[in-house]
Amino acid sequence: MTSQPSKRVAVIGGGISGLAAAYRLRELRPDVAVTLFEAGDRLGGVLDSVARDGYLFERSADGFITAVPWGVNFCKRVGLEDELMSTDESRRQAFVVCRGRLEPVPEGFIIMAPRKIGSVLTSRILSPWGKFRLGWEFFVPPRRDESDESVGDFVTRRLGREAYERLVQPLIGGIYTADPMQLSLAATMPQFVRMERDHGGLIRGAKRRKPEGGGKPQENSGGARYSMFAAPRRGFGSLVDAVRQRLPADTPRLNCAVKRLERVGEQGAWRVVLERGGAPELFDRVIVAAPAPSAAPLFDVVCPPLASNLAAIEYAGTAVVSVCYQRAQIRHALDGFGFVSPFIEKRAIIAGSFLSQKYAGRAPEGRVLIRAFVGGAKRPDLLTRSDAELVALVHGELADLLTITGEPEGSLVSRWERRMPQYHVGHLARVKVIEDQASALAGLALAGNAYRGVGVPYCIHSGEMAAEKIVKDL
Ligand SMILES: Cc1cc2nc3c(=O)[nH]c(=O)nc-3n(C[C@H](O)[C@H](O)[C@H](O)COP(=O)(O)OP(=O)(O)OC[C@H]3O[C@@H](n4cnc5c(N)ncnc54)[C@H](O)[C@@H]3O)c2cc1C
């Protein structure tokens, strides 16, 4: 009697979305043969950590939110539970650059919702008129139109131009390396749509809401307590390694860019055609976990409308410039997690993170590791500069803002061209069409940061959901 050949599933893209998909497939159906195609020579996509001279550099993400469970749960399942560490909440303060100086973001100001009007009134960030206009938000009637609106339009409508330019634009621009005038509010900050709809406004809504994280540790599903952000002790590279070690050795195939997908019959198998030759291979199911610009051409033959919708999702590039100093070189107290800088301040740095103040073990004793983001949707020109130029530019601005003497004693520049999806106005409607088009292709699922969340936990969730969808009818 011949045994039934095992089913084969292809996962395309070896970033955290594809890794989570492959791992979930393994958990649900260990009998299924999973092949993870990765174009590059390493797994993890943008996630990568570099240990050097006692520092631990993160090339992209440095932590993830714990308000959604998927990141913490995944880390636990891949054996990193004891490795997860929280941010030091006593230092949970963010600064914003204001007329060349770092000013604390008013206490209780959560992205765009002022919970404590008093702290906004005493802040030096807004002029008297800007404060008045922000307080007037209480009386601004809710919008009746349910169509999508940009973050910028929403905030200027509710809180006024100054609060947008000086506070909200840098806070949101810093998260998405985006222009909030183009970002979809519903896709990026749906909680504020709900606040206006359910409570009539942000001030009214913020007063009624429990703080999100609010400085208090969260109770996670496993009972362990984490602050609002968590990170693996040995960096995100260790998360990637942990997943890889739990997958069968023949699951990942590096340096294997997929060029095209083809159908074998209407409901039949998928033929995966590789970029650099090699015989095309047949699979029963496919999960595409590559970023939208790379996923689009895969569907050129099978479903051109899906290809063009994927190609229409815009991505911005950014560079993460990490610089190392001796603590004694820096006059600033570094009594926070970092700062953001508004466009109107005309600086190269979009946001700076005091990484070694946020998480233990990122710098040797008496040393400091700071990460600065440059580029983004508004300054793509900066990415044409050399590494040395970027380090000099970042050091110059940090020296000015933090009063630093001397030069950095180390640096690392990480460039991410077109790797930050920009959820522009209308994004969710486009994603719905993409999902419908993908669902019409039997045996296909999509995952990744292009659709319903860019943060690591959201990418993990998208990979896991794709895996669950795929095994249902396998
Ligand atoms: C600078 C930066 C900072 C960030 N900071 C944070 C943070 O602090 N916290 C947080 O939660 N999130 C953060 N994010 C977001 C988060 O890290 C990413 O959204 C997430 O890691 C993306 O994972 P992914 O697998 O979807 O995509 P990617 O990491 O882009 O991986 C996609 C993979 O697909 C491969 N691929 C592409 N095309 C093909 C093909 N044709 N065939 C085979 N393989 C292919 C690529 O080589 C790549 O390895 C940050 C992102 C960046 C860029």
Architecture overview:
- With 474 residues, the chain is α+β, with helices and mostly antiparallel strands.
- It folds into three domains: 8-45 and 238-313 and 423-472, FAD/NAD(P)-binding domain (3-Layer(bba) Sandwich), CATH 3.50.50.60; 107-208, Orthogonal Bundle (protoporphyrinogen ix oxidase, domain 3), CATH 1.10.3110.10; 315-421, Protoporphyrinogen oxidase, mitochondrial, domain 2 (Polyamine Oxidase, Chain A, domain 2), CATH 3.90.660.
- Helices cover 32% and strands 23% of the residues.
- Strands 8-7-20-21-22-19-23 form a seven-stranded mixed β-sheet. It has a five-stranded parallel β-sheet with strand order 14-2-1-18-24. The protein has a three-stranded antiparallel β-sheet with strand order 5-13-6.
- A hairpin with an 8-residue loop joins strand 20 (338-340) and strand 21.
- Helix 5 (151-159) runs antiparallel to helix 6 and helix 8 packs across helix 9.
- The chain is globular, with a radius of gyration of 23 Å.
- The model is unreliable at 211-224 (pLDDT under 50).
- It binds flavin-adenine dinucleotide.
- Residues 12-18, 37-40, 45-47, 60-64, 257-258, 289-291, 294, 318, 320, 416, 419-420, 448-449, 454-456, 459 line the site of flavin-adenine dinucleotide.
